[in-house]
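Hey, weird one. I pasted the UDENN domain-containing protein sequence into the form twice and got a warning about non-standard characters only the second time. First submission, copied straight from the form history:
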Amino acid sequence: MTPSEGSSGDDLSLRTIQVHSFVLTNIDSKWRFGFCRHDPKSPTAMVIITYLPWHDTFMRFLNVLADIRKNRPNEFSSFLAESYNKGVPEPGACLKLHYDRASQTFLFQRPQQFQLPSIPENHNLNQYYNFVEPKFMIGIFAAMLAERRIIFVSRRLDILSSCVQAANAFLYPMVWQHIFIPVLPMQMKDILAAPMPFLIGVPDAVYDTLRREEIGDVVILNCDTRTLETPFDDVKSMPQELVSSLKKQLSNQADHRGDRVSKIFLGILVQLIGGYRDAVKFNDKITFDPETFIESRPSHLRPFLDKMLDLQIFQQFIEERLDMLNTGQGFSDEFEVEYFRYAEKSGRKTKQYKDLLKNFKDKC
């Protein structure tokens, strides 16, 4: 995307530095993350491509690179070389890079693998929280759980990419399995007519060239006008007890710092799919029984969960959990921790699952 593709003629982005992210999908469906910084006074942009989804770290790093390139150009190449040769720090370890004749330091600690996005630390979540009303967050969440065709629109690429990335993060522990483009280049706009699910950030300048009849039934969140358009009743299709819980918790804005907002959405998924353990069968090979899963759920959740069985995001989640169990890896991410907390509060029996898991791992 050239700088002009994401901006209209009177857009503030033509006068201010733009920092945004994008995603490249490999042939094996793995994501590579791109982090881009463009100064409108420059004909070029600085871009970092990596498999590491460390948005805040690389955004900070780009600002340091820009500072060195502008004020200490003779150090730029050596600083880049040192950064590359340092490699990726071990989990929990820190990386230090010195510049300006060693008088300044770029320091960061490797992010925890399953750490939930927090306010104000996480830039993507901050933008999403500031530009999207809670009721629209719920609408997008419901649309993603229905695997809809979803478009975000904004004049500013930083807001656009941040909101798309933050919305995607709320799916954790599941992962969006379909077309995922945080910032859509003009030359790729035909993909918006594709019939399959997608989650795409569309710059306002690109969106203005579209004809609505060309893109069909699609969910559209405009981050600038703060409006949500949808031809579906996805929120009404969700269990209303969970929707009410979302609305109540998101309305208490005084309690939203830290990872609270992320945990609100995670808590909904814990109630929906955390009970997958009740359908895990420990035989020679650990398997998942869909019928047992539905039968073990509360009656008010069953109609919605029955539809979720067909979702690629849920199927991939189950496959990954079974793979980890069958290879003896086990897992203890934030989702599992939250499920056990929920199970203890609600009086659900989890000891049997813990014992079965321990016995299986002892056999490996």
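That's the output from the first submission. The warning seems to come from a hidden character in my clipboard, not from the data itself. The mean pLDDT is 87.
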